[in-house]
Amino acid sequence: MPMIRKNRVRDVTCAPLPRGLSGGRRARRRAALLEAGLELFGTRGCAGTTVRGVCTLAVLNDRYFYENFPDLDALLVAVFDEVARRGEEAILAAVRSAPRDLPLRVRAVANAGPGFLIADPRHARLLTHEIQVEPALRGRRNALIRRLAGIFTAQAHELAEDMPLSDTDVEMTVLTLVGGAMELVSTWLRGELAVDREHLIDFLVALIVTSDGLPASPARKSQAVRRAPA
Known about the structure:
By secondary structure, this protein is mostly helical. It is 72% helix and 0% strand. It contains 10 helices and no strands. The protein is elongated and about 60 Å long. The model is unreliable at 1-21 and 217-230 (pLDDT under 50). One of its GO terms (molecular function) is DNA-binding transcription factor activity. It comes from Thermomonospora curvata (strain ATCC 19995 / DSM 43183 / JCM 3096 / KCTC 9072 / NBRC 15933 / NCIMB 10081 / Henssen B9). Keywords: DNA-binding.
């Protein structure tokens, strides 16, 4: 009689998950929490969002929330940072696809910012409303303005053939323009400006393009006077 080999059944009930599989599940749970946070923060606002609500929407147990975030504020910051990153990517993509021409590139960027916010109203709420009222996001607004200003400053130096402003004046100009543009777009999104999108974009482009004609700073003027022949 041939010998029958019995299959051994492995006990896998206590076997740990392979590191890659465990990490993948953890990453998926975090992604689900971030998406749930975006949905709730972006529709109900921070005041109407709870840990339980996030976990219910993500279809996860509360313990998985605290495995990833110490509290709701930490989730809010993580969601905001992700949305801001996507917005910056949209603006940089517009920069890369636009011709090497200042007015055309400014128009591409001026379209990309509001376009990103309009495409998903949740983005608009986070970047234009919650950022102004939530203490957890207080430092995020300044950091976002600085990063966007950096993009504009790099473009100004690349495209302006004869920059009449000093580096400090360029920085002040760009910070003023970016901060003002953010406030203007926020006001428009709230329906407090009776203009259409085309009018808004035309205004932003004209404002930004003509800003390179600002007069030189008093320090540069005094230097020019000293260099002028008697």
